Amino acid sequence: xxxxxxxxxxxxxxxxxxxxxxxxxxxxKEKMQSKGNLTGNLQEYLPMINIQDGGDFSGxxxxxxxxxxxxxxxxxxxLIDDYRxxxxxxxxxxxxxxxxxxxxxVIGIIQIDNFYEVTESLERERAIxxxxxxxxxxxxxxxxxxxxxxYADDKYxxxxxxxxxxxxxxxxxxxxxxxxxxDYGKTPLxxxxxxxxxxDSFIDLGRLALSSLELALGRGGDQVVIKSPERVWxxxxxxxxxxxxxxxxxxxxxxxxxxMILNAEDIFIMGHEGxxxxxxxxxxxxxxxxxxxxxxxxxxxxxxxxxxEKMLSIVENIKLPGKLIKPxxxxxxxxxxLLIVVDTHKPSLLIDPDLLPKVEKVAxxxxxxxxxxxxxxxxxxxxxxYASSTSELVTELxxxxxxxxxxxxxxxxxxxxxITVDTKNFIFQxxxxxxxxxxxxxxxxxDPLLVQKLLRDEYEQLVRKAVIIxxxxxxxxxxxxxxxxxxxxxxxxxxAQGADEMLNIHGIKxxxxxxxxxxxxxxxxxxxxxxxxxxxxxxxxxxxGHLTVAAAQLxxxxxxxxxxxxxxLIEENN
Length: 574
Description:
Layout: H1 2-7, E1 11-16, E2 21-24, H2 26-31, E3 50-51, E4 57-58, E5 64-67, E6 70-80, E7 83-90, H3 93-103, E8 105-112, H4 115-119, H5 126-143, E9 147-152, E10 155-161, H6 162-170, H7 175-180, E11 191-196, H8 202-218, E12 223-227, E13 232-236, H9 248-262, E14 266-270, H10 277-292, E15 298-300, H11 306-314, E16 323-325, E17 337-342, E18 361-366, E19 380-383, H12 390-401, H13 409-422, H14 432-443, H15 448-455, H16 459-470, E20 472-475, E21 479-483, H17 492-503, E22 510-516, E23 522-528, H18 534-539, E24 544-545, E25 549-554, H19 559-573
């Protein structure tokens, strides 16, 4: 027995109900640097431990004590009625660091994404809806030992430790599913949560929490974003962004943008690299609005863009609403300059990113879910993931910027083409406001037959799509991955169409099409029926998009390596 006790690395001390030492192992004697056995009251040796009459702790606020520059974990166990066993275990430095990390504070903000929209038709039930949400969120906070305070009808402040936040991460923030399961009619309730971590001051934690919530809402809500000074983590985001019924925000943004245009001398409009019809349509639509306000805009676009070339070849003798300039050709000649960015919010995807720091003010209009990368210090941000397309957003803004605006048939047709392409002929991500925008464009001269001509495939394009399908494979019985083996210029349209075609295969829930450029880049287009979140997958490859439509561009990889990386990512996440 003595040999066993001697080998135990912890300190063992048996005391009576008054704290007098009855027995201890040799490890404790060595630590106290005593030659003989220790006698008397335990407090003589460990004054930080006070044993009450009855053998319980008194005044010990933590289960950790310090003995000769080392930290020990303390436990008090009952042996028999009159004796207690004190069990002290040394805590290693790594464990201390982990404990310190786990005890660090976390600040979070919770917002009900669509509380007012859901309850506006449930006036009598609003209190019941609010109580149900409060109950679920309060229970979740209680499980995490968190402080929770509701400070608005749809907002909560939550303070907890990192250790307890980890518990939420382990369960993938199941509170999102519980809130979504509340049934109050056709529109499901959703919440967004933003957390700030790994900062010493509460001011910085609060700043990160606000930034996280803004990012979660910008990505369509129904998700959790955790932000540290170096990294961002995303959880949830499995549901489609819900269309907003009210157009108040669109009206406010339109008036603000109108003022910015009127106060600017040099006005530039720019979309993303490899512009599609949504980017071109939104650019021409904004140029028309600027022209109606008496200004001469410049549209930054690659003149070799196939979509633009096709549009200009079909539409003859129609004057463009703005001057087309090549990337790098923009000259900012006045102090009051404005850049309107459409159909992207990532600096790395801009056709001319060098123009950003040269202009005085920047406005961003986009419908893609907000990513971690974002144009810094933008003066106006209008990112709405619920919208079908940026062309839809621009169409709404034009209507609120001036009742007497005359939008040309070219711009109206280009905007309609942008909406048609991004909705796959008004099937995906299509809401009431999408049809309202299309009706407005039709009234203003948009030509559906011209849109059909623009979207017709060339023979060569059809053959290339067939090659992608021929070089495809099915994984997990529901995901199709196709590859175009030869490098081509501007593969974005081809991969998008290839992914669309593969999604039409029976039983396929997600499709991915890959192609390479002569410069060595890889383009991936992703499509989904809504059961698989392709946006999350593309974000992990540096891209982004929507739940059902997303894309990414890779560099430094071969086509085979890119496909292998994609398959590995799919297997890890599905």
